[in-house]
Amino acid sequence: MAESPTIRFGILGCADIARKVSRAINLSLNSTLHAIGSRSIDKARRYAEANGFHPSTKIYGSYDEVLDDPDVDAVYVPLPTSLHLHWATRAAEKKKHVLLEKPTALNVAELDAILGACDKNGVQFMDGTMWMHHPRTSKMAEFLADQQQFGHLKSIQTAFSFAADNDFLENDIRVKPDLDALGALGDAGWYCIRASLWAVDYELPKFVTALRNPVKNKAGVILSCGASLHWEDGKIATFYCSFLSNLTMDITAIGTKGTLHVNDFIIPYKENDASYRTVSEAWFTDMDLEWNKKPSEHIVNSDLPQEVLMVKEFSTLVDGIKRHGSPPDKKWPMITRKTQLIIDGVMASIDKGFEPVEVS
């Protein structure tokens, strides 16, 4: 029996999130962790040892060595956002498929350069938004598309926040203007914007408006903010993202006939199952004392965690290109670009005194 095709990954950098993704690479049956590189070979060795990497994993003292390894098919890039343009573009030029951590770029012009390099070199691009790959996400989408149960979408509210400690607020790369200048908007807001786009089947809003009084640190990096997105047919989305509030990962989507609630959409409460709640045509009992319906809870089981499913899907696309001559899937770059466009719009609205900014 022929062996299952395996995509060999290299990782650029020793970021904390790479611990989760390296585990996912090893758990996925169609991928393997082939190499990791850091700016220091000693750091790469310590990282590999601390995370139990297989002894066969190549250890490199530079990112270029990973990209120059002819056995590396694809790279996962969890570097600071300010480094994405250089290293993701360089990876594409080396014919390596690119799984890029979010936020994918500082602005859409940088992202377009990355996507252009991927397109020119025929390599697959995908960003690292893991919750998109959980089977719960497709089940929730089915409810939103059900006109009998949900009707037509009118509003979606999302929130992602966590109460960062003082060390994070002083030292994390996400609060440093030279490393991740988008701050909470790029880190936490990315998920909220993606959820809003997901709910409308990736139709771009007409304009976005940043909410007043975002919180910034002394260096001018956003620690907390919000915005509203407006579509020409009257749909509206609002979101809140913050490094300064209690851990919250909520989606509420409201239709003409039904409502969807999910309280752990980014990282499920449990790794292998996830729930969401729906209610349709709810009203009140006599004298408005109670609701006539309670939301129904739906549990979606998954044999593999969502990050493994992300790696598996990415590796399947890479295998199709590598072994069967398939073209790169254009869906994932499209979704990434629309997310980045709205990030840019929110930043522009803040800079323009919270005026509406058209998205195009």
Automatic annotation (TrEMBL):
Alphabetized Pfam families for the sequence: GFO_IDH_MocA, GFO_IDH_MocA_C3
Positions of the GFO/IDH/MocA-like oxidoreductase domain: 144-260
InterPro entries in alphabetical order: Gfo/Idh/MocA-like_OxRdtase_N, GFO_IDH_MocA-like_dom, NAD(P)-bd_dom_sf
Domain named Gfo/Idh/MocA-like oxidoreductase N-terminal: residues: 7-126
Molecular functions (GO terms): nucleotide binding
Family recorded in the similarity comment: Belongs to the Gfo/Idh/MocA family.
Protein name (database record): Gfo/Idh/MocA-like oxidoreductase N-terminal domain-containing protein
Species of provenance: Carnegiea gigantea
